[in-house]
User: What shape does this take?
Amino acid sequence: MILKSELEELLSNLRKARSILVEEFVSENPDIFTAMFKYDNDNVVMNMYIDCYFITWLNYHLEVFSCFNAKSVSCRNWFLSCMSDLISKYLKGVNTDSHVYKRSEFAYTLLEKKKAAIMHIIKCSDSNKLKYNKLVYAVEKDKKLFEREIAKLKEEA
Assistant: This one.
């Protein structure tokens, strides 16, 4: 279960990352807009710049989250699931039949790998939680069996 304080901090960090995206467009960041005008007649290069910016923006999210002190596994998994959903939505917008995709296949592959890595982390986390629960069960079971054995020995004495 996600703690309220963790959720608030996590949402604040996500808001911060979104605000950076908005600020860069509102302030007409030269790194973004120069390419937009320079390559306005070349969709392939333009889309590569868009992909590059998106990947950089995603990486910023991951950097912010790495500084975040999430104590709960569910909070971390929730964040990673959000990132995976965001990548999925972006990838759905890429037309894999177009010539533009053929030239920006590198970015597409990079995003697919990033998504796969995130899903692997979530899967490992879920697996670790299951193993932890089995361990807790074994400890409780052994504890109860030990208590029964002690009670049995006390009765015999």
